[in-house]
Design a protein that fits this description.
- Chain B: InterPro entries: FA_desaturase_dom (IPR005804), Fatty_acid_desaturase (IPR012171).
- Chain B: This is Fatty acid desaturase.
- Chain B: Residues 365-385 have a biased composition (Low complexity).
- Chain B: Residues 365-397 are annotated as: Disordered.
- The structure holds two protein chains of two kinds.
- By secondary structure, chain A is α/β, with parallel strands linked by helices.
- Chain A has three domains: 25-127, Elongation Factor Tu (Ef-tu), domain 3, CATH 2.40.30; 143-255, 3-Layer(aba) Sandwich (Rossmann fold), CATH 3.40.50; 268-351, Ubiquitin-like (UB roll) (Roll), CATH 3.10.20.
- Chain A contains nine helices and 17 strands.
- Chain A has helices spanning 2-16, 21-25, 110-118, 153-163, 185-193, 204-207, 212-218, 233-245, 287-293, and strands at residues 38-48, 51-58, 70-77, 80-87, 99-104, 124-127, 143-149, 169-176, 198-203, 226-230, 252-255, 268-272, 277-281, 311-321, 327-330, 336-339, 343-351.
- Chain B has a domain at 13-35 and 115-356.
- The interface between A and B is large, with 42 and 57 residues.
Chain lengths: 353, 397
């Protein structure tokens, strides 16, 4: 049956060449495309003044996630497809096959702001398969500790919603600016009231940030617990130092949202991933010239930005268009084609060559 | 720009090098303004054109299943011709130019797109985007000047073969997409010697073209006709007609871009060390527009705005009409002529050139012939820095 189907499909491909049949079907059934993973927004629920939860119906080809994993979501913002990572906050065992993500509008966050303000039912988003190492693992820990701040609660919420029944002893230490700014505040407090978790909520605008040393008092059996931490980088750095100082670094797992560094003056270290070549560049020399000077086999053409023969994927980092100064920023996991003949490094970046 | 300077009236004699750089700065500013404002409405435009084209193609193919009936044949063939023209011109040509790469949609991207054409996208991009657009109208470097089979400029040497060029041009028009495929392969040059014929790179390219043509022919002349059962032969005729219509149309439009009178050509040595301003100026003088309605502009893939397209080949095509008044104004202020005319006039002008130049140039009185061109100084070739702006961009960051 399967062979017959692929055989018939080949004939349909002959009919539609040079495009594939799915390109026609995409117009009416965008979730049926087996090669392009998409999702439809089924519902939008506000969480706080600055965050929303999106209930998504993933299309064909979605693989189930482990609680705590994240998914890269591609959103068309003013005509440009931008990709960002969001933790999955729903349980993988949902009967209706839906997943949810929670988006917190960060200042200057183009994608998060767009989603919080403009996401609506019926909108199509693009997805990558779920990924990430920040998971509960097997067997489940007898005693668990989650230390989170801001939107760092999202992967933890995914874990609690899916596996709380397997976790007998849970402490959640969560920080947010104010009580109202706590994402999932009501749900967390309800769990605490029912005695399912011990919740330590800290409102930093009034009470200041939690220091790692405070944790020793707040959680007396700190180092008897398996710990998961997610939040701003400086918080995670402090926590890692604290755990390492106590000789218990193996008990702490952290999840970082790495911001891409953009240098003000331009220039930066360019890494050509496949050849392993690393060069220091200033902000005025095209990547093509830097690469060629370092002996990397660079594709090239007009050398003036019109023929697109030199286009290669930017995997991570930032480059600036030398003609108009426009920045292109790639988050980890991205693969954004850039024209090397008219682009210069605007910070550390990695090129797929 | 030696070729121009040899003419009786040099169209740029009145421009100082500073003027030329100023033109470059003004054009960069126009470019920045448009490129910085690309957004949702442009994305919606190209997606809409693609959706329309696909609908039209699907509809026409559906109608042609019954092409046995003359009305179905006529309507289906007309619709398919339009669909095929849209696919090559407003969609394929422009996507392959990278005009829509900024959307970062892998489905509408110059590195991923394949078009309904005998020449594979990859090969066409090299000969068109890289050679033709960089070396526009440079005699001996831009093979688009007569496609290697014709003489379309007085500076190209005459050969008895050129006597037949009106006929070659007509044949090329009828089989234009195959002509382009042969041209992208540089078939004439690469078949000339045994060594070239055996070059693995050429052989791989040839194989790719054969595969592409095979698929195209199978689709239009076997699969779709077979699907239409008793209308088999009628569908073959319909598809052949649609391909012919597209060939004639795209050939005419493309002839209008660089062949009509008023368009200038350039000598190889004139582009050594060419600056950005000089490159822009060469594009301005080397291209001609077609005037007409909005529908006409879309059907030409906005190549009717050839001047704007050659200045900014990677600008979304829907923006050319928008900047045309500014470009025209710039031509006027710098005393340059903006060559433009309705389609029939431009086609006639281009054809007249093809006919006229099939004969050798009129002998020039010996005195007028410039003395032996001053031997080009044997200096090292100056690299062209066309990407470098005369004025650094104002960056917001």
């Amino acid at each position: 049956m399967h062979n017959m189907r692929t055989g018939a499909w080949r004939v349909v491909e002959l009919i539609t060449t040079p495009v594939v049949p799915a390109d026609y079907l995409d117009v009416i059934a965008p979730l049926r495309n087996p090669r392009v993973l998409r999702a439809k927004i089924d519902a939008v629920r506000p969480e706080t003044a600055n965050s929303v939860s999106l209930l998504l119906r993933p299309g064909r080809g979605w693989a189930w996630h482990e609680p705590g994993q994240y998914v890269r979501v591609g959103v068309d913002v003013d005509g440009v497809r931008l990709w960002r990572s969001y933790s999955i906050t729903s349980s993988p065992r949902r009967r209706d096959g839906r997943i949810s993500i929670t988006v917190n509008a960060v200042p200057d966050g183009v994608v998060s702001t767009h989603l919080v303000r403009h996401a609506k039912r019926g909108m199509i988003l693009h997805l990558d398969p779920p990924t990430g190492e920040f998971t509960l693992g097997d067997p489940r820990p007898a005693k668990a500790l989650f230390v989170t701040a801001g939107s760092g609660i999202t992967p933890v919420m995914g874990m609690l919603r899916s596996a709380l029944h397997e976790l007998p002893d849970v402490v959640v230490v969560h920080s947010a600016g104010t009580r109202e700014a706590v994402v999932f505040g009501a749900e967390l407090r309800a769990l605490a009231e029912r005695g399912r978790i011990r919740l330590i909520e800290r409102h930093t605008r009034a009470d200041g940030r939690i220091k790692p040393a405070d944790l020793d008092e707040l959680v007396p059996d700190l180092f008897e617990r398996q710990a998961w931490a997610c939040g701003p980088n400086d918080m995670l750095d402090d926590l890692e130092t604290h755990w390492a100082d106590a000789g218990h670094e193996q008990l702490l797992r952290t999840e970082r949202f790495r911001p891409t560094l953009i240098s003000g003056s331009g220039g930066g270290t360019v890494t050509f991933a496949q050849s392993g070549t690393v060069v220091e560049t200033d902000g005025s020399e095209p990547l093509l010239d830097s690469g060629e000077a370092a002996g990397v086999l660079m594709p090239s053409g007009c050398r003036m930005g019109i023929c697109f023969s030199c286009v290669v994927p930017l995997r991570e980092g930032a480059v600036r268009d030398l003609r108009d100064g426009q920045l292109t920023v790639a988050e980890p996991g991205d693969s954004i084609p850039v024209q090397t003949c008219v682009s210069a490094a605007a910070g550390p970046c990695t090129i797929e060559l | 720009m030696t070729t121009i300077q040899r003419k009786e009236s040099n169209p740029i004699a009145h421009l100082t090098p500073e003027d030329i750089e100023r033109i470059g700065i003004e054009l960069d500013a126009i470019r920045d303004e448009v490129m910085g404002s690309r957004g949702e409405r442009d994305a919606a435009y190209i997606r809409r054109v693609i959706a329309w084209q696909r609908g039209l193609e699907l509809g026409s193919r559906g109608i042609l299943l019954f092409s046995l009936f003359p009305p179905a044949w006529l309507v289906g063939t007309a619709a398919l011709s339009v669909a095929k023209i849209l696919e090559n011109m407003e969609i394929g040509h422009n996507i392959l130019h990278g005009q829509w790469d900024w959307m970062r949609d892998p489905k509408i991207h110059s590195t991923k797109w394949e078009w309904d054409h005998a020449s594979p996208a990859e090969q066409w991009k090299h000969s068109h985007n890289e050679l033709h657009h960089t070396y526009t109208n440079v005699v001996g470097k831009d093979n688009d000047l007569g496609y290697g089979i014709m003489r379309v400029d007085e500076q190209q040497p005459w050969h008895p073969m050129h006597l037949g060029q009106p006929l070659w041009n007509f044949i090329n028009a009828c089989f234009f997409e195959y002509g382009i495929a042969a041209y992208d392969l540089e078939l004439g040059k690469n078949m000339a010697t045994k060594e070239r014929r055996r070059d693995p790179k050429f052989r791989a390219a040839l194989k790719a073209v054969r595969k592409k043509i095979g698929k195209q022919v199978l689709k239009d002349y076997v699969v779709h006709p077979a699907l239409s059962g008793p209308s088999f032969l009628h569908t073959i005729a319909a598809n052949a007609t649609a391909n012919l219509v597209r060939n004639l149309w795209s050939h005419s439009v493309i002839m209008c871009g660089h062949f009509p009178s008023g368009v200038e050509t350039f000598e190889k040595t004139s582009i050594d060390g060419e600056t950005r301003g000089e490159w822009y100026l060469r594009q301005m003088l080397g291209s001609a527009n077609i005037s007409g309605s909005k529908a006409m502009h879309i059907m030409t893939g906005n190549l009717s705005h050839q001047i704007e397209h050659h200045l900014f080949p990677d600008m979304p095509s829907n923006r050319y009409a928008e900047i045309a008044p500014k470009i025209k104004d710039l031509f006027q202020r710098y005393g340059l002529s903006y060559t433009s005319g309705p389609l029939p006039k431009q086609v006639a002008s281009a054809w007249w050139k093809v006919i006229r130049l099939s004969l050798p140039n009129k002998p020039v009185p010996a005195a007028a012939e410039p003395a032996e061109a001053p031997a080009a100084a044997p200096t090292a070739k100056v690299p062209a820095t066309r990407w470098r702006r005369a004025q650094a961009p104002v960056t917001s960051a």
